[in-house]
Specification:
Layout: E1 6-11, H1 32-39, E2 45-50, E3 71-74, E4 77-80, E5 106-110, H2 133-139, E6 144-150, H3 152-165, E7 169-178, H4 185-195, E8 199-200
Helix pairs in contact: 3-4
The structure holds pyrazine-2-carboxylic acid and zinc ion.
Zinc ion binds at residues 50, 52, 58, 85-86, 111.
């Protein structure tokens, strides 16, 4: 059993990020069994769930003529445009059916505001609107975070870097993550996480 000050943060293991999903991450489903096994060791387990309204501003389909994976300027900075994914209430937004959701103590939904995306479990992409997870963890005395899930180079990366900035001791277990990896995004994410003081296993 892990110490009471350690939490497991499981990022976005949802159907749309698994093979067959709208924004499928290669081998995204292959981490589920290992994540379930890890949950048994933790006293605080948080799941995140990407949870977008229809017509979300991060969808290429919301911008006339825009291509998937192109970049646009949003008031909070550059934003990658994605295929429609993780629409509230859809099957794609559900957790992978084998994920042990019953073990979770807290589920954080993110990306539910139309005009702003949210990769991180802690802040939306403006880096200032909080999800509340920081307070939840600190009020429970959590100091160390182990992060796993999808995708390494986006939501895991942003969550890990924000966690480190907020003063948590953050480790990412890359064997229980899978990446989107386009245009050098995985290498950049690894470098950014290391620079922020995140331990990469
Ligand atoms: C994610 C892109 C868009 C992720 C979520 O979970 O990494 N990536 N929304
Ligand atoms: Zn999303």
């Amino acid at each position: 059993m892990r110490a009471a000050n350690e939490a497991l943060i499981v990022i976005d293991i949802q159907n749309d990020f698994c093979p067959g999903g709208a924004l499928a991450v290669n081998e995204g489903d292959q981490i589920v069994a290992g994540v379930n096994a890890l949950m048994a060791e933790f006293q605080t387990i948080v799941l995140t769930q990407d949870w977008h309204p229809r017509g979300h501003s991060s969808f290429a389909s919301s911008h006339e003529g825009a291509e998937i994976l192109s970049l646009i300027d949003m008031p909070y900075g550059p934003q990658v445009l994605w295929p429609d994914h993780c629409i509230q209430g859809s099957n794609g937004a559900e957790f992978h059916s084998d994920l042990n959701v019953n073990a979770a103590h807290m589920i954080v939904r993110k990306g539910f505001r139309s005009q702003i995306d949210s990769y991180s479990a802690f802040f939306e992409n403006d880096h200032s609107t909080p999800t509340g997870l920081d307070g939840y963890l600190k009020s429970r005395g959590v100091e160390k975070l182990l992060m796993v899930g999808l995708a390494t180079d986006f939501c895991v990366n942003f969550s890990a870097v924000d966690g480190a900035k907020l003063g948590f001791d953050v480790t990412v277990d890359q064997s229980l993550c899978r990446a989107i990896d386009f245009d050098g995004s995985l290498d950049a994410a690894r470098a950014g996480m290391s620079q922020a003081g995140v331990t990469l296993l």
